[in-house]
Structures are given as C-alpha cells and as structure tokens.
Amino acid sequence: MSKSERPNQLFRNLNAKVASIPMVLTAVVIFVGGSAWTVLYSFTNSKLLPRLNFVGLDQYYRLWSTPRWLVSIENLLVYGVLSLVFSLVIGFILAALLDQKIRFEDTFRTIFLYPFALSFIVTGLVWQWLLNPEFGIQGVVRGLGWESFNFDPLYNSDIVIYGILIAALWQGTGLIMCLMLAGLRGIDEDIWKAARVDGIPTLKTYLFIIIPMMRPVFITALVIIAAGIVKVYDLVVAQTSGGPGIASEVPAKYVYDYMFFAQNLGQGFAASTMMLLSVVVVIVPWAYLEFGGKKRG
Amino acid sequence: MRYQFMTAALAVALPFAGPAAATDLEVTHWWTSGGEAAAVAEFAKAFDATGNHWVDGAIAGSGGTARPIMISRITGGDPMGATQFNHGRQAEELVQAGLMRDLTELATRDKWTEIVQPKSLLDGCTLDGKIYCVPVNIHSWQWLWLSNAAFEKAGVPVPKNWNEYVAAAPALEKAGIIPLAVGGQPWQSSGAFDVLLTAVGGTDAFLKVYRDKDAEFAAGPEVAKVFKAADDARKMAKNTNVQDWNQATNLVISGKAGGQIMGDWAQGEFRVAGQTAGKDYTCLPGLGLNEVIATGGDAFYFPLLQDAEKSKAQEALAETLLDPKTQVAFNLKKGSLPVRGDIDLEAANDCMKKGLDILAKGSVMPWTDQLLSQDTQKQKEDLFSEFFAKPDMTVEEAQKRFADIVASAD
Fold first, then answer.
1. How far apart are CA B158 and CA B146, in angstroms?
2. Exposure winner among B64, B293, B338, B410, fewest CB in 10 A?
3. Residue B344: domain span
4. Residues of chain B with pLDDT under 70
5. Number of other residues whose CB lies within 10 A of the CB of residue A117
C-alpha cells in the first residue's frame, strides 16, 4: 500500500498548470493566432474589411517597390544600429561611473532614470520643442551671440532620424544604466581584489573580466532595446509625424497608415508580416543558442 | 478597499448603461477648428429643436485621424448615430458590407433628387441605385488665398492668377515674406498639386488622370507642365515650417506668407480673424486660370442601428441637415456652399458669391474623394509630401512615380 507510484508527469504541479491556463490561452489565441491570421490575410487584397480573396505575393511586390517603405527600412536600420550601440555604451559607462562609490549616487541614479518615466509621446513633444529652430537650442545659442549657429535636425531631411535618435537615447539609456548597475553590483568583490593582486589595469578588468561575466545582463538589455527599436512609432509621430516629407518614416507607422488611413488592410498586413519576420530572424537563432545550449550543458 | 473600488466603478458606469430619456444621437465629425466648431453648433441647435438630443462626438486632428476611429467603431459593433465622411468613396466598403443605412425611402419621400444641386452631389452618396448619405455642403479645393497686406509690403499688385503670382514670388521673398504657405501635413501638398492639375492642366486633364486613370497621359507633356508648376510651388513654399493647414492659413492672415492654395474651408479662419474678403484678402477660384468648383464636400452617413427610437431620430437628423434654414446658418459659418439651389444666401461674402456664380454657371467637376480610393490617395500623399520636402527630387522622377501610381490606381 505504501508503495507509492511515480506520479504522472502531466499532473505534477497541477495547481501551477491550472493557474497558467489563462496565460497559455492568451499566448496561443491572441499572439500566435493573431499573427497567423495577419500573415494569412497579407496574401489577400483586403481593403477596408478583411476578405479572403487571395492575390499571392502581390502585396509584397508592391511593398518592396514603395519608396516610403524603403525609406522606413533604411531609417529603422540607422536608428536601430545606432540606438543599440549608444544605449549599451552610454548605459554601461554611466553605470561604471556610478559604481565608483561616489557620493550622491542615489540622486544621480534618479536623474538618469527619470526620463524613462515619461512616455514616448511626451518625450517626443519635449524634444520637438528643444529642437525647434526658433524656440529651442538653436534659438538659445543664437540669442547668446553665435548668430550663425545651426542646429535644426527635425527640419532637415538628411539628419532628421538623428534628431529622433537623440530623444530616444535620452529616454532609454537610464533604464539600461540601471540594468548594468545591477549587473556590476552582482560581480563578487573578490574578483576585483584578485584582479588587483594580479596587477590588471581597471580598463582591462572591465573589458576582459567584468563584461564577459555580465553576459546575461547584456542579453536582457539587448532584448529590451531591440524590442523598442522595432516598435518605434509614437516617438516619430510626436516629433515629426514622419516629416519632413517622408524622411523620418518608420515601418510601424507605414503599417498603421496603410491599414487605417489608406484603408488597405492587405498592404498593412504585408508590412507587419515583414516586421514580424525581421524579429523572428533575430530572435530564433538567439533563443536557440541561449536556451538550446543550456539544456545540453 | 476592493469593494469600494468596485462600487465606485459601477457608479461611474451605470449612467451610461441606463436608458436615456430623450433620444440621444451621437454624431461624430472632425470639425474642430474655430470656424468649423461654430458651424457644427448650428446643426446641433437645429437638431435639438426637433426634440431629440445631439451628442457631440468631435474627433480632433482632421479627417485622417478621425476616419480610422469612426470606421473601427462601426466595424467593431459600436456604431454612433450618425457620422461625417466626405461623400464619395471613403465609406464605400462600409456600405457594401451592409453596415450603413439605406436612405432611399426617405430620399424619395422628401424629393432629394429635386432639391439637391448640383445633382452630382447625390451621385457621391449613391451605390447601386440606393442613397446612403446626406450631403450637407460643397467644399472645393480650387482656391488661392492671397494676403493683400503682404503684397502691399512687397510693393507688387495683388496677382490675378497663378502665373502673375509666380512672377511676384521673388519680390515677396525679398520683403521677407514666404511666397506660398504649404503646411507639412501630407494631404496639403497632395491637394495643392491636384488644384494645379485642374488650373494649369485643365478640367479634362484632371479627369483623364483621375477618372480614366490614363497612366500614359500622366507621364506625358501636358502633365509635365503641371509638374513644372508644382516645382515652382515647392520653391515658393520651402520656408513654411508649420504643420496644420490652419497654421498655414494663419501665416496668410498675419501677412507673413503671400498666399495659400487651400480649399474654401480656409475662409472660416479669415472670418474668425475678422478679415473681409476683397479688402484684407483676395480669393482666386481655380487659381484664376480655370474657374471651376469641385463638388467634394461633407456628408453624413447613418450606420444601421437596431434601436427603433434611434432610427427614428436618424431620420429627423437627415431632414434637419437638408432644411433650408439650417443649410443657410451652417454654410455661412463654415464658409462652404449650400447643397440646395433654392435658398438665398444674402449674407454671403465676396468669395462665396464667386463660388455661387460658378456653381450657377454649372462649371462643376468631381473631386478626388469621389474618383480615387483612399489607398491611391495615400500613395499620392506620400509622393507629394516627399516632393515638397525634398528639393533634390527631380520633376522627372516625381512625374514617373506619379504615373506609376495612376497606373495602379483603383
């Protein structure tokens, strides 16, 4: 009687499994189901209302021959690469500086993190004013006497995307800094002592010992930044609404505009499928390396 | 705590859930600028007088922002009582999907076909022989608004047509005035081009491109002339750093800009600013080259509702909108032309009288809202907002892309 049978795997932790059913359903029905639906309808010529009238790859041909989409992709690449690099570099440097047992660390941390409390819409509006040639930075500097000072990125098609990048970095680096700081604090004090005993210079210690040890933190930061890059939309809407002309358009805005303004769901779905594809291309290899590797190890 | 929160939430929710006493009809529209709001208040007043209640659902941010909200409410099963659209093809699919109410019966009873002038207005509301909307005004795009003060300052006479205006541009620029104000919103540059197409190219050219979708013609020499004019406009507008159309109109009102190509809704702004047509500003229909009026405009559509009370209120609203007195009161404030030929606009100002004359002569044409799908319109907007913002985009390249859009237009 007392010989207990090995419990069925399915019923282990039954409570936890029951409790997670709603989330599983949400994930499957809304995320996976919704994505599949979108991909399916991207092969149709749906206009205002979804209709199953298949036209093959027509929407994709049109998408990739639309100048506005190409500009959007180019902007996303420029914005993405720069925002990734600068967020990580600035975030890490700020964190490393804060980690030097300085005074008023709390105050600085709060100041740097504070912009993150603002939504992208507010950030966008604030920077739209700051970068406005008449009222913003250019106006102030000219007022101080440098009459020829020129700084109006939002009104110049060639550099407008950098104006948006500045605002995004101002808003986002604080969070990355905090993540990095947490990572740095997680490093055992003994490692620093050992490095000092071995006479390794501080910079080298950071580059070759600390940063490799902080790999999980970097990966978390990377995922957070990357997700922010692909979905960038509200910042552009608030700062430039895609202008001047179409110089600061981004893919997410293309999707929205074509789905709702142009009443062309098929085209919008095709564009959003391309966005999904780009995320999948990045995430899948990473997830494979990260989680697949752990199981083996 | 939690229960308190629940009761509080319920207390907030209940008034909306309970039955309304008088029939409330929510009407959504995007009339939010000063002149527009004053005009729509006239409708509300007249509708309230019928014993019903107008629940105002104004959506700020122009049609481009408002339409997606309206459409998603109708398709999402939360229809309002009535909603504004530009008559034509904006609501086409909603009608095809059976989401809009068929007004034919009411229209026959009230003899709309006889009172609505010009007839092409009702065509924009008709699909498969059935009438689905009530046109309330005629708005035409083909106007050039000029600031008399700006030309005085520049020391040149106020131009009488587009060509004179282009010739006067250097003098304006020398006086520190922006020759032409074009706001940054995409529809403004695209609309300005369409006006140039009617004025410089002529009505036939416009119809050939947008109605017949003749891509070869769109790539040809006649349209090339229009692109040349658009290039002039682009150069004249290069210093406009505003977004909204009414901010651009404001530049003209304050004399900081020489002029603006904008529909007759701009007139409401001049009135709110207390300016007089002929004295403070000059208007040139058809840019002074081709005096026509496009029969675009606004109309009200009525979503199909289950509630019998509300359906009755919809009929009352439809009648109110076409009532001669409401038509006069509304259109005077809005600066648009009435949809009835049988009413007297005594109080109309100079510019409106010009418009009424053209209308009486029958020089009317359809506009892009009636001829092109929203999809094509959006592609056009993308092209022209890029063209106006990017000085190094050549005229040839723009025309080639324009012809491509026309070729794939529907």
1. 8
2. B410
3. 25-139+295-360
4. 1-21
5. 9
Residues in A 261-290 with any Cβ partner in B closer than 8 A: 261-264, 267
Radius of gyration of chain B (CA): 22
For residue B16, the model assigns a pLDDT of 44
Residues B398 and B303 grouped into a single domain = no
- Which residues in chain B have their CB less than 8 angstroms from residue A245's CB? 385-390
Question: In terms of domains, do B310 and B274 share one?
Answer: no
- Quick one: pLDDT at residue A5? 62
CA B127 to chain CA centroid, nearest Å: 21
CATH 1.10.260.40 fits A59-296, yes or no: no
Block residue for tokens 């083996």? A296
**Taking CA atoms, what residue in B is nearest to A258?**
B375
Total number of domains constituting chain B:
2
- For residue range B242-253, list pLDDT tens digits in order: 888 888 999 999
> pLDDT value at position B357?
87
Judging by beta carbons within 10 Å of its beta carbon (0-12, 13-18, 19+), is residue B10 exposed, middle or buried? exposed
Alpha-carbon distance B65 to nearest alpha carbon in chain A (angstroms)? 8
Residue-wise DSSP of B234-289: HHHTTT----SHHHHHHHHHTTSEEEEE--TTHHHHHHHTT--BTTTEEEEEGGGT
Q: Is the peptide bond before B118 cis (omega within 30 degrees of 0)?
A: yes
For residue A1, the model assigns a pLDDT of 47
- Fill in the DSSP letter of residue A297: -
Q: Any chain A CB within 8 A of the CB of B408?
A: yes
Give the gyration radius of chain A's Cα atoms.
24
Calpha distance A79→A250 (Å, rounded): 10
* Residue A7: pLDDT over 70: no
Residue listed under structure tokens 């007004």: B103
d(CA B14, CA B361): 56
Cα–Cα distance, A38 to A272 (Å, whole number):
8
Quick one: pLDDT band at residue A261, thresholds 50, 70, 90? confident
How far B380 CA lies from chain A's nearest CA (Å)?
11
A21-39 in b/e form (b: 16+ CB < 10 A) is eeeeeeeeeeeeeeeeebe
ipTM: 0.77
Q: Is B389 on the interface with A (CB under 8 A)?
A: yes
Smallest CA-to-CA distance from B356 within B382, B380, B391, B328 is with: B328
* Other CB atoms within 10 Å distance of the CB of residue B173: 17
Is residue A116 classed as helix, strand or coil in its secondary structure? Answer: helix
| CB B249, CB B264: distance < 8 Å | no
pLDDT grade for A6, boundaries at 50, 70 and 90 = low
Closest CA to A153 of A173, A167, A142, A172: A167
Residue A158 contacts by C-beta under 8 Å, 6 or more apart in sequence? A247
B111 and B173 within one domain: no
* Partner residue opposite B386 with nearest CB, options A155, A245, A257: A245
Q: What is the pLDDT of residue A294?
A: 54
> Are the beta carbons of A260 and B72 separated by less than 8 Å?
yes
Q: In chain A, what are the domain boundaries?
A: 1-41, 59-296
All residues of chain A having their beta carbon less than 8 Å from the beta carbon of residue B388 are 245
Tell me, what CATH number does B275's domain have?
Answer: 3.40.190.10
Residue A246 and residue B386: Cβ atoms within 8 Å?
Answer: yes
